[in-house]
Model the fold of this input.
Amino acid sequence: MTLVRLILEEIRYRRGSFLLAVTAVAVASAVVLASQAVLTCDRETTESLLAKRQTEVAEAISKREAVVRQAGAELEDAIRKQMTQLGFNILILPASQDLGELHLNGTLSATMPAAYASRLADSGVVTINHLLPMVTQRVDWPEREIEVLLVGTEGELAIQGRDAKKPLLAAVGRGEMVLGHGIAARLGVAVDDTVEFRGESFRVAKIHDERGSIDDMTVWIDLSTAQELLGLQNLINGLLALECGCEGDRISEVRAEIQTLLPGTQVVERYSQALTRAEARSQAKRTAEAALAAEQAAGADALEREAESRAALEQRHAEFANRLVPLTIAIAAVTIGLLAFWNVRQRREEIGLFRSIGYSRLRILTIFEVKGILIGMLGGLAGAGLAILLPRFGLLPVDTGTPTVLGDLVPRTTTIMLVGAPLLSAVSTWLPAVWAAAGSGGYPAWRVNS
Amino acid sequence: MHLQLTDISKTFQRGGDSIRPVVEASLTVAPGELVGLQGPSGSGKSTLLLIAGGLLSPDGGSVRWDETDPYGLSGDARTALRGQSIGFVFQQFYLIPYLSVRDNVLAAGVGLPIEQCRDTADRLIERFGLTERRLHHPARSARRTPARHSRGRCCGHLASSWPMSRRATWMRTTARSSCRRLREVTESGTAVLLVTHDDKAVQIADRVLRMRDGKPL
Done:
């Protein structure tokens, strides 16, 4: 009769209380493992969510950057065009031109060689983006008995060594005419109408919208025709320099560069438009950057809120687990201890008999402790099974099949099965076992009944 | 074994009262001798039996198992010596309910070589005619039918009979079959102390003592 057989037979005989003790350990083990699985799952979900969120924010910012760049470009382009409609930015005039005539009448009378335009374009001037040679005079339109400002232009000249830029002003084709809104309204002409001007026939290619400026009374034709009509062959009244790359006081650098390349000229900045344009461009840039920064800040803020929200959830789960796990372990320990005490009470006669026929205290202690360890191991095994199976039946909101959770669960399960649960059960059984070995066991069996 | 009790006294405290069931009692049982001990309930028979069996420490006097004072040994040493040298035949069955007939007998063989235990157990089972039922659980059977109850009782005594092959047996019983068996074991030199109410049971004893005023007279 071995001790193990004695223990196993007793377990089989009192299997109800044994199963109850195993269940207590199983529940405690399952709670420990499930709590750990929930916390691990929380961490994994948080990392996954934050990574996904980070990607979304990065994509949103990337899209926003594109939108901002586009918006900035559109804003800049719109401002640039508005600036051209306000008037010339820089006007290169012959040095002999009386600026009073320009300011008082809006007309120019002095001339300079038309070759100045090509000379400037070929020089690779760096401070000018758009260059338009032109002639202009205030003239009568005899066929219509009206006074207009005639402007002859051949469109923009390409500046050497510079990438082609989108032209601010389109060239007027030969035989075509562009009219200001006021003239068209007064004459009652429309686009594609043919009109006679100083003996020449022109097709109306375009009519500008009302601008509320001298432009409303301006007629644009091609440069060479205008030169012929005005008797200014190979001469021009000035060069329009648009869209200068000048900011702040760099207008003085433009003036110095132009006068070096075209001696005998003067550079007029009208209404500080270059500065205004530069400021507008800077403002557009700042607006775009501010929008992008706002998007980045919003993304970072959203990420931070998400992280805080997840951290709070994890904290709540951890606090709950920190209370639940010790409570469950304590309940299991008390249950095992009470069942062991009950078992000793039930077996007092048996223990007395064992003691009277020569069983030592250590042997009696061993009988109860081995049973306790067995309860712990089986309870740990059952608890591990519960912790793994509960999520499969939807009773626990975690996925114990993921590599991270499994990687965390397996070593903990092994530890709990081999060490934790048997230790818990052995410790809980200790006092009843000692009581059996030293107290109840020492009491003669037949006196128990007397 | 030669059992010698000299001037044994024992006092129990129950509530505020002191009870002295044994007062300066002396008793000797020689090897091969069967001594009967009788007396009314509460006269101190069982207390004296416990003290003689090394299960209850006396307040005064001395106990000798041959030349050994069992109460001079440590608890475990006394338990081991008791397991090897002394057997008890109980009045009640004290069967271990979850063990079979054979395992109940084997459980008493602690400290002995396993093969010897099995041989002795099988021999005892055969002598009591329970070989076919050696794997039955007597305690469970005893609860079911009177017939099985009698078999259970028999098995209980069978289990308790194990120590009869030892050198001394302290017995508190009225079972006549056990009494007859006791007579047999004294032939091998075993000292037997029989405590009983049954006048017929003590007829097999070499001498009979009666407990009076805490002393066997």
Remarks:
- The two ends of chain B are 22 Å apart (CA to CA).
